[in-house]
């Protein structure tokens, strides 16, 4: 039987596989996060007709004479070239700009995806369209421990968040050096107790014959009058207190219960210059009970919650993963990939760190399929298929002539 017949058959198979891959690329031209594939062909074994000959005295060497036995599929490579961005405006849609994969958990198996079209389920979990839970780290009081194991990201939308008692307040501005004795300047600010109740703290500055004094009161328990000391340049130097971290700061601790846990009153911003009174409370760190109403995703993957009391706080952190050889990942459907022995182990981290891209919220990554290239590949595959069909047809004609020799 003619070798060309079987070479033609192998060519048909190979170019059919090329058409299959190309058609799949074209079918997924609008699939979010899809990565196109390319076929690589290899020749098969070659039959040795004559071995190579070494040069001899007076005669040159000869090359080997071999007849190829066809073609086979060498590889199907996945291209992880960045796809274009499609703006959606949805807070749960996220796009990776650069390297990396989102980490998801599907039926207790850790998988990876570039498709960031996420949603929330009935339990508040961030999930893919097929229900795989997006992985990351929860935040505790706004702090994320990325050294902890990753887990499902949950946002308690509408769930009541406990209040934060006021532990620090800042007062700054100018106390006039030319004010008359017995001048009194009260300033009030709303703070919160451990139950989230509003407590109005009034800080009263009084100019005595010996200088300015300050008293802090919640309306029932005033502090002792504390003298203020200013340097010749008008900057405050006393009083001082030791904060919760053991650092010495300018100000005082208002502790009406005497339990050592009160409100740190920061007075470092006070001055004593001739002129107008500008002293006022600037801020306090307490908040009432609140519910999580919305969120946004930062470029580094932090989910920042917006609460009903107006506060913003980090509530979770998305995890990203990368591999030494991303094309070595196995496609498992639903735009998901599985680790293999040739992809390398997943290197999990935070967006924007070494080897990992940044995130763009309100957008998704489109397919990286190049239609012009795919249509060209389709023509190449078609012509290759036709050419190999012609080889089989011609081989059949040769065999037919051979059979006709007996007539």
From TrEMBL:
Organism lineage: Bacteria, Bacillati, Actinomycetota, Actinomycetes, Micromonosporales
Biological process, per Gene Ontology: bacterial-type flagellum-dependent swarming motility
Record bears the keyword Transmembrane helix: no
UniProt-annotated location(s): Bacterial flagellum basal body
Protein name: Flagellar hook protein FlgE
One Pfam family here: Flg_bbr_C
InterPro entries per the UniProt record, alphabetical: Falgellar_hook_FlgE_sf (IPR037058), Flag_bb_rod_N (IPR001444), Flagellar_FlgE/F/G (IPR020013), Flg_bb/hook_C_dom (IPR010930), FlgE/F/G-like (IPR037925), FlgE_D2 (IPR011491), LlgE_F_G-like_D1 (IPR053967)
Cellular component, GO, one term: cytosol
Domain Flagellar hook protein FlgE/F/G-like D1 positions: 95-157
Broad class of where this protein is predominantly found: other
Naturally occurring in which organism (per UniProt): Dactylosporangium aurantiacum
């Amino acid at each position: 039987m003619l070798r060309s017949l079987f070479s033609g058959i192998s060519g048909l198979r190979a170019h059919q596989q090329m058409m299959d891959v190309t058609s799949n690329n074209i079918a997924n031209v609008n699939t979010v996060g899809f990565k196109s594939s390319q076929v690589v062909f290899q020749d098969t074994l070659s039959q040795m007709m004559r071995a190579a000959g070494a040069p001899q005295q007076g005669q040159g060497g000869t090359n080997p004479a071999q007849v190829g036995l066809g073609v086979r599929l060498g590889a199907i490579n996945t291209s992880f070239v960045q796809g274009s961005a499609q703006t959606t405006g949805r807070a749960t849609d996220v796009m990776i700009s650069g390297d990396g994969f989102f980490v998801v958990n599907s039926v207790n198996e850790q998988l990876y995806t570039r498709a960031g079209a996420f949603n929330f389920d009935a339990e508040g979990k961030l999930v893919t369209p097929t229900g795989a839970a997006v992985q990351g780290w929860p935040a505790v009081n706004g702090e994320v421990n990325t050294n902890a194991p990753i887990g499902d990201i949950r946002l308690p939308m509408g769930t009541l968040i406990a209040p934060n008692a006021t532990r620090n307040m800042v007062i700054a501005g100018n106390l006039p050096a030319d004010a008359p004795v017995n001048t009194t300047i009260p300033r009030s600010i709303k703070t919160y107790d451990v139950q989230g109740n509003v407590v109005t703290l009034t800080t009263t500055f009084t100019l005595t014959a010996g200088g300015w004094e300050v008293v802090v009161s919640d309306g029932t328990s005033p502090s002792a009058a504390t003298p203020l000391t200013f340097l010749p340049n008008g900057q405050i130097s006393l009083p001082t207190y030791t904060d919760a971290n053991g650092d010495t700061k300018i100000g005082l601790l208002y502790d009406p219960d005497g339990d050592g846990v009160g409100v740190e009153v920061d007075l470092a911003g006070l001055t004593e210059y001739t002129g107008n009174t500008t002293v006022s409370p600037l801020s306090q760190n307490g908040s009432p009970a609140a519910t999580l109403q919305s969120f946004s995703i930062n470029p580094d993957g932090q989910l920042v919650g917006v609460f009903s009391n107006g506060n913003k706080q980090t509530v979770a952190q998305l995890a990203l993963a990368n591999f030494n050889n991303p094309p070595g990942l196995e496609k498992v459907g639903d735009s998901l990939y599985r680790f293999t022995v040739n992809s390398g182990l997943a290197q999990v981290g935070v967006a924007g760190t070494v080897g990992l891209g940044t995130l763009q919220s309100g957008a998704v990554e489109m397919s990286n399929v190049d239609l012009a290239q795919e249509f060209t590949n389709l023509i190449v595959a078609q012509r290759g298929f036709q050419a190999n069909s012609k080889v089989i047809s011609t081989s059949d004609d040769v065999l037919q002539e051979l059979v006709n020799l007996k007539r």
